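ok trying this again, last paste got cut off
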Amino acid sequence: MIKAIALGNNFLLTAIASSFLCWMASLHPNLLLLVQALFVLKLIVSATAWLLDDAIIAILKIDLLQFRFRLIASTVGALVGLGVMLCRS
């Protein structure tokens, strides 16, 4: 149960942070460029994590299923923030 709460918190943290960033990006054009760069960086890091998942789980000493759930939760959270940015603009 504690793992489920921790994984849910990971999703909520990402969703709230990306929603806040995208809301700020809708207020000023320069912040929009910064947030877009952060989303590209997140995409690169996520793609690298998916490709190198065996090496990463050996370093972090976590279960593969838990690691993949964290990747999926953070990606969905970022998509929620992207939806906020698209709705505000």
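PB: full thing came through this time. The mean pLDDT is 81.
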